Amino acid sequence: MAEETKDQAQESAEDKEIFDEEADSRQNGQQEEPADTTNDEQEGEVEASEEEELSEEERLEQQLNELQAQYNELNDKYLRIAAEFENYKKRTDREFSRQVQFANEDLFRDVLPILDDLERAVNSTREESSFEKLKEGVMLVYNNFKNLLERRGVEPIDSVGEPFDPELHEAMMVRESDEYDSETVVEEFERGYKLGDKVLRHAKVVVSK
Fold it and tell me: Residue 159: which of 209, 196, 206, 200 has the closest Cα?
């Protein structure tokens, strides 16, 4: 009987030892598990940070590529516009030079008949009774030239008997006059002309005081 009791006590001690070992093992496992979880979390954060940095670099690179494409497009437009403007400038310069060259073409064409009349008047002096023919020729040239100016819109400025106007007249002298009121043109030294409203030449006059 004593031996059975001893055996049971020994078995109980062995069972307790096994139980304590299992308890210690479970406790150690529970203590180590949080450490493993923390490491996993840290590794996940590092990987997420690396992915975020990579994504930021890709975004910046994409923006840089877009800006470069926009710059290239604007630069191409600028070069085309600059070339077109240079061609336009050359074309307008040629047209302007041509217009200046032939601006008075019609005027010269109208003057040629007057030159013919003057030439005929000069040739008439070689004949008898040349004075009358010369006079007729000179009057013909004068009238033709006067008509040419009128067709071109050139008109003489009225002076004698008109109030002095510094916009139209240039006073050369001042003279007392019983015939005209003060500040009136009494004599004309040189006739003035205007084209429309623009004065081509002021009339040189004498003004009463």
Answer: 206
What is the SS3 assignment for 36? helix
pTM of the model: 0.48
Spatial separation of the C-alpha atoms in residues 36 and 42, rounded to whole Å:
10
Residue with tokens 């096994």: 18
Rg (CA), the chain: 58
Euclidean distance between CA atoms 143 and 150, whole angstroms: 11
Reported as a single tens digit per residue, the pLDDT across 145-169 is 888 888 888 889 999 999 999 999 9
What number of H helices and E strands is found in the chain?
A: 3, 6
List C-alpha distances in Å: 5 to 15, 18, 19, 37, 174: 15, 20, 21, 48, 166
In whole angstroms, what is the distance from residue 103 CA to residue 52 CA?
A: 74
Sign of the alpha-carbon dihedral angle for 139, 145, 151, 156: negative
Nearby residues of 44 by Cβ (< 8 Å), 6 or more positions away = none
Write the CA distances from 189 to 88, 91, 168, 177, integer angstroms.
50, 47, 14, 17
Spans in the chain with pLDDT lower than 50: 2, 4-6, 30-35
